[in-house]
Design goal:
heterodimer, A: mainly alpha, 2 strands, B: alpha/beta, Rossmann fold, 2 domains, six-stranded mixed beta sheet, four-stranded antiparallel beta sheet, 10 strands
């Protein structure tokens, strides 16, 4: 009940941002939508399945370059088509990478996904005639719901129709993910995170379900990548760079991977914190490093843990039943997979 | 016809021979105990039988399927379940969620992405049924890691039972449980097996009271070989087995310990 109220208020707040007259903040919100969707996927992989990917930005880049190819090269401007194509392209890339990566867990999974991300980065960087190399590729303004909106300038378009389109997509993505984590499949993912051997002995194939989770996470990453590329008008090889994957993991930790909404909060705070810190010092990475250290040491459950009163104390999971899926258990050191490998994540 | 059959199973770990040509056949209705001193190969045998460890040589057949090394997940779907020697649970999942995972697996619904688990009445009913059989019904909402040790053990076994397997392998179902509680756990197990319709139980057990009290067949392993295979009366009288496996020079005295209702009179599963 209270959660619903908070969510409604947050949603209303986000919806009102473009009307506040500060266009700058409205444009800052645009990457938030893209990151929010990508992180919903990443958290299915990490928070729910226990696999920490250091290469999730690969799929964000796949989404962005799909958008660039469709709009810039093939002249397909329908945004719905672009989104579907990006989701498909991300899934296509996720099949071979995922099949290889899910053979491993913990740090080996992390390193392998990192390697795939860097491979793709090198490809984008070196194959100039295909990808534009370090200059990247232009992403043209898409046509939303068949409406060209040619009369609108760039900024009014972005903080107007595009803003609400993205907000709607984020809400839809969250609803879809909510449905997934509350499904039998979602329970199996958590069982695999908690104890893959036990899950296997109950007939749940850990490797297969990890692969499905990887696939879903990638599709969310691809869609997020499209949303990120449109405001900048550019698909840039740095989108696939490992520091970008690192930023995604940072957002996850900052918001708290133990909560469904943690990653979305993490994306929001990351973007506005970055903006604030960059405005007074060029050493913003230094500040962010310190923030990350403080989060990992003192607030392992992230901002969501602080907000919900979890903080340092062990959570009270007493009320958790089939219906209560709000919180994941606290990070454990002894269980297989990502959630337990907190000390290995830095 | 044999439900589960091991034919000449040999398992090497490097140069160490854990099993040296073990053959074993279990038919429906049997309660088989595997006994033997530490290092006799009991757990290795269970691991081979449950598809976790591929044998170096030999075959394992379950319901006419060759199951050697196919992995526990596929075997579980074929109708074989197991519990582990060390308590194996999902620490962060509740009792209800743990049992639900098993029930979903049995119903073939684990892959459902788009149904709400909370709204699945079948699953809920079966979870409650299994929890009732194992006395866990009043702690469905508790995360498994917060349960006392005995309840963790029960949950481990209950989740295996929730698969409604045809055969179940229990690796020391009463280890780490006080002597006082052991018989209660065994009664629960056998009662649940009968209710669920489990056709055969194989257990590894050290407590001879339990072994002789519940089994209708005992397989004694020693140094990776089958030393003896027969009904409790035969094993009890076999001086060689008694000396090697049980470490006693005298034949076993008749069973002592707390009385049970209807002891030994009939096969537990029939």
């Amino acid at each position: 009940m209270i959660t619903g109220l908070v969510l409604a208020l947050a949603l209303a707040g986000v919806a009102l941002v473009p009307l506040a007259g500060r266009d700058y903040y409205a444009t800052l919100m645009l990457p938030f939508f893209g990151y929010g969707i990508a992180l919903l996927g990443l958290n299915l992989l990490f928070g729910y399945t226990g696999l920490l990917s250091f290469g999730h930005a690969l799929f964000v880049a796949v989404g962005a370059y799909t958008a660039a190819y469709l709009t810039g090269v093939f002249g397909v401007l329908y945004f719905e088509v672009v989104l579907l194509a990006a989701a498909g392209a991300a899934a296509l890339v996720a099949v071979p990478t995922g099949l290889l990566a899910v053979r491993y867990v913990k740090i080996y999974f992390g390193m392998l996904t990192l390697a795939f991300g860097m491979l793709f980065y090198s490809f984008l960087f070196k194959f100039y005639h295909l990808t534009g190399g370090d200059e990247g590729m232009r992403v043209l303004r898409p046509v939303l719901l068949g409406q060209p909106l040619a009369g609108l300038d760039k900024v009014p378009f972005l903080i107007g129709p595009y803003y609400y389109y993205c907000l709607t997509l984020l809400v839809l993505a969250a609803l879809v993910m909510w449905r997934i984590v509350g499904s039998p499949f979602g329970l199996c993912l958590r069982a695999i995170r908690e104890n893959p051997d036990k899950a296997e002995s109950l007939g749940v194939s850990a490797r297969r379900y990890r692969f499905y989770a990887f696939l879903i996470a990638s599709v969310f990453g691809g869609v997020g990548g499209v949303l990120l590329a449109v405001p900048t008008g550019l698909a840039d090889p740095l989108l696939a760079y490992w520091t970008h994957s690192g930023n995604l993991v940072f957002m996850l930790l900052l918001g708290g991977f133990a909560n469904f909404f943690g990653p979305i909060l993490g994306a929001f705070v990351f973007i506005f914190l970055q903006d604030a810190v960059m405005s007074f010092t060029q050493y913003w990475r230094f500040v962010f490093g310190a923030v990350l250290a403080v989060v990992v040491i003192f607030f392992p459950r992230g901002l969501m843990g602080v907000l919900l009163g979890g903080g340092l104390r062990p959570p009270s999971d007493g009320a958790a039943g089939l219906t209560a899926r709000w919180r994941l258990p606290p990070p454990r050191k002894d269980c297989a997979g990502g959630a337990g490998a907190r000390t290995e994540e830095e | 016809m044999a439900l589960l059959e091991a034919i000449g199973v040999t398992k090497f770990y490097g140069d160490v021979c854990a099993l040296a040509g073990v053959s074993l056949s279990v038919t429906a209705g049997e309660f088989v105990s595997i006994i033997g001193p530490n290092g006799a190969g009991k757990t290795t045998l269970v691991n081979v039988l449950t598809g976790l460890t591929p044998p170096t040589r030999g075959a394992v057949r379950f319901k006419d399927h060759d199951v050697a090394g196919i992995g526990p997940a596929r075997l579980a779907r074929l109708g074989m379940a197991r519990s582990f020697q060390l308590v194996t649970i999902f620490p962060g999942l509740t009792v209800e969620e743990t049992l639900a995972a098993a029930v979903l697996s049995r119903l073939g619904r684990t892959g459902r992405l788009w149904t709400r688990l909370a709204a699945d009445a079948d699953v809920r009913a079966q979870v409650h049924e299994v929890a009732g059989l194992f006395g866990l019904a009043d702690r469905l909402g508790r995360p498994a890691r917060t349960l006392p040790q005995g309840d963790k053990k029960l949950l481990d076994v209950a989740s295996a039972f929730a698969l409604h397997p045809e055969i179940i392998l229990l690796d020391e179902p009463t280890s780490g449980v006080s002597t006082r509680d052991k018989h209660a756990i065994m009664e629960t197990l056998v009662g649940a097996a009968r209710r669920i319709g489990i056709q055969a139980i194989i257990q590894v057990e050290h407590d001879m009271d339990i072994v002789f009290g519940y089994s209708d067949r005992i397989v004694a392993l020693h140094e990776g070989r089958v030393l003896a295979d027969g009904p409790p009366q035969t094993i009890r009288g076999d001086a060689h087995v008694v000396a090697t496996v049980l470490g006693r020079t005298q034949p076993l005295a008749p069973r002592t310990g707390p009385p049970r209702p209807e002891p030994d009179a009939r096969t537990p599963l029939q």
